Amino acid sequence: MACPSILRSSTSSFHGQFPIAASPPRLSFGNPRNVSVVKAAEVVLVEKSESEKVSRLKTAYLERIIPKLKEEFSYQNIHEVPKVEKIVVNCGIGDAQQNAKGLEAAMRDLALITGQRPVKTRAKASLAQFKIREGQPLGIAVTLRGNVMYAFLDRLINLGFPRTRDFQGLNPNSFDGNGNYGVGIKEQSVFPEIKFDLGKGRGMDVCIKTTAKTDKEAQTLLALMGMPFRETGPVTEVRKKKLKSHHFSRKGTGRK
User: Fold this and answer.
1) Which residues pair with 175 in a beta bridge?
2) Which of 37, 67, 85, 236 has its CA 20 to 30 A from that of 141?
3) Cα 50 to the center of its chain, rounded Å
């Protein structure tokens, strides 16, 4: 059996010939927001102070809008005051199955607009008349909450709508009866992140879900946030033109 002193001397001589390599630095997995993402020779720094900074629209809601809503609707509890719960932005792409590059470009543009990467929406059932199979990608959608939601809503109100061509205000009758409001945008180029393209424009639908119980409360909430609703006058009944007998004759159609 080998003597312990001999083993110690052989071990020391072995480490003398082959020095021990330094252990690799330990990576800290703390807050994932303090990361540096390197992609395509560009560095994107996400500062903790910027990610946790409260939006100015949320500050206005907490400081000025809540007292006005409590005074107008006589809420007894602050939790009864309606608020914006989430915003769902979706974009339909008909040729997503044949045009994979177009789908990726649409996802990249929507991520630039909303600040959050969207997900693909797929067909739940097969429809032969539309040549749609189950599981086929049909569009993209993204759900926004928290500070990202308030930041997008602020940019939509102060940048998106004013840059819309021939904008005459939002329709106040687009509520669904449960306090939720939906609006469609024809061109994504109204946002400064998207470059104007002379080709086929791509639009998107924005659904704002609130905790309001009635449409009136939801409209007051969004109006105080700055939503430019169109002022509607008295509703006038549109009289339909009465068709006469010559409209149904064969002479009018040019048939013999």
Assistant:
1) 181
2) 37
3) 19
